[in-house]
Amino acid sequence: MAARALSTVVKRTTGIVGLPVAHNAQKTLTALYAQTLEALEALPETAQYRVNVEQMTRTRLDAVKKATSVQELEEMVNAGQVEELIVAAKNELKLIPKIAAGKPWETSKASKLNVEVI
Question: Which keywords accompany this UniProt record (predicted)?
């Protein structure tokens, strides 16, 4: 399914200091979400982090594909402006390798804890 371009209404500012307007948010988010889904493949399918991030990413990617305007996309996702979504997606891509390296799904065997009740 080909992605539709979001309407051409020009946004002048995000209103957030230091966060410039994204001029091609749909293309940027589509690419970032595809990269995120690919990066998550390095984690076990049963890892809760992977499950949660895949679900969120697929939901947001679907919204990007369905939205006909930036405003509609922002309302559908309900997680801030598209520029904030881009920042969040970039941060997620930085986090995934750290999660993979830490392997939080590999829990050590619980050690016996001696508790003395006073």
Answer: Electron transport, Membrane, Mitochondrion, Mitochondrion inner membrane, Respiratory chain, Transport
